[in-house]
Amino acid sequence: MNHTASSSAAAGDGLPPVERRWAALAVLLGIALSNLSTAVVNIALPDMARSLAASDAATVWVVNGYQLAAVVCLLPVAAMVEALGLKRLFATGLTVFTLASLVCAVAPDLGTLVAARVLQGAGGAFLSVAGVALVRMIYPRHLIGAGMAWLAMAVAVPAALGPTFAALVLAVAPWPWLFLINVPLGVVALLLLLRTVPGSVRTRHRFDVPGTLLNALAFGLLVVGVGTLGSGDTGLAVAEILVGLVCFALLFAQQRRHPSPMLPFDLLRMPVFSLAVLTSSCSYTAQILAYVSLPFLFERVLQMTPVQSGLLITPWPLTTAIAAQLAGRLVVRYPAAVLSSVGLATMAAGLLLMVFLPADPAYWQIAWRMAVCGVGFGLFQTPNNAAMMTTAPASRSGAASGMNAVARFAGWTLGSALVTLLFGLGGEQGPALCLSVGAAFAAAGAVASAARRWREVRAAT
Q: Any stretches that span the bilayer, and where are they (predicted)?
């Protein structure tokens, strides 16, 4: 990395064309790997349960561990950006993610696999926080739109192709290969990053140790408590949830007194912004409830193969990608809150249609229902994200982006924990119960989005 390129990037003019392409490849590859890791694991959960001699409810912690670690780390990692610098932050995340992928592949038991997934989730949080800002640094001002478009592709394509990719891998190899694939690609991305991405100016920043600990305890105990409910130990579960809520209260109190709080109170005091955050959390809770439970529905209840399961899930993310592009055009003409409400109502209807599948459904009967869910999610996603970013002042776009990630991971984490609970309570009916609860969360998100529109109309008059 030469001094001229580094100075150019620091000035906000991006990198020279050749270096920009290689640097962008490094960042986008890291983002794509973290999103692919989330998309492929769900399909393999039944195989993991069989090979590791674990229960379905316990195996769901392969998903829970990743999501929990990510949501716990997001706020503290965002607070570390100025102290570590974007390049070092992203490199740290990529290193942790790649090493954890290797441990996942060789894990001899479920406990080791879950622990490795926790490390993977922490690495994913680093990548999520630093990725967008690095793209902004790499591309010159007049090409920022192109950079963000590539970033969107790095998120959407793995989500769309993940289930199919996992199904194809599982057709010829055991599930550890879903993690081994990350290792050489992660090493390539890290080497490219170190070679091409310039360092950034770091500032002295006092790390908020009390806030970080309270953040971890609050999210961790609440999610673990919900999962413990599924094991039947109600007393322990209630204690974990209550202590988690107390830690949340202490975190809010501590952050309000902190000179540089991790929580953006100025944004959360805006009703339209806070309702957009709530809408996002509800939608992602519904999404993960479906994504985690559907492989069990297809493979355990309907007796399908992992390949068939992956192919049948694929219509959801594919139609999401198409509907998201359409929603990006519609949001110019129609209020984001209205589009989000319509989208989540459609998603809720699709989930309920999945609950009432025929006893022996044809593939097309499943595929069109999955497409309805995907269209609804796509209609919601783009307008809601746009609303969150445009409601916040331009100077607070970083904080708004951070809350967007927190809402997403918080929803995923809560949804994963609820799967554990509902599988424990519902037995063979667990997948159908998860889809029903997912529909309820999607409907709640539609109501929250409608309330946002009511606030906007009221403010305008």
A: 22-45, 57-77, 89-108, 114-135, 147-171, 177-197, 209-229, 235-253, 273-298, 310-327, 334-356, 362-380, 405-424, 430-451
pLDDT at residue number 11: 43
C-beta of residue 61 within 8 angstroms of C-beta of residue 228: no
**Rounded alpha-carbon distances, angstroms, from residue 305 to 44, 168, 297:** 11, 11, 11
Give me the pLDDT at residue 7, please.
45
DSSP string, 25-55: HHHHHHHHHHHHHHHHHHHHHHHHHHHTT--
Residue type, 124: G
| Class of CATH domain 1-205 | mainly alpha
Question: Cα 232 to chain center, whole Å?
Answer: 28
Instruction: Read off the pLDDT of residues 333-387 as tens digits, 9 standing for 90 and up.
Output: 888 889 999 999 999 999 999 999 988 899 999 999 999 999 998 888 778 877 7
Q: CA 443, 444, 448 angle in degrees (round to 5)?
A: 120
The pTM of the whole model exceeds 0.90: no
The whole-angstrom separation of Cα 12 and Cα 20 is 13
* Alpha carbon of residue 383 to chain centroid: 17
Cβ atoms of 372 and 350 within 8 Å: the answer is yes
Q: Which residues of 381-403 are buried (b: 16+ CB within 10 A; e: fewer)?
A: bbbbbbbbbbbbeeebbbbbbbb
Please write the tens of the pLDDT for every residue from 239-261: 888 998 899 899 988 888 887 77
The reply to whether domains 1-205 and 263-461 share a CATH topology is yes
DSSP state of 302: S
Report domain extents, the chain.
1-205, 206-259, 263-461
- The answer to whether the CB of 292 falls within 8 A of the CB of 64 is no
The full length of the chain comes to 461
Which has the closest alpha carbon to 131: 81, 167, 171? 81
| Rg, Å, the chain Cα set | 21
CATH (residue range 263-461): 1.20.1250.20
CB atoms within 10 A of CB 162: 25
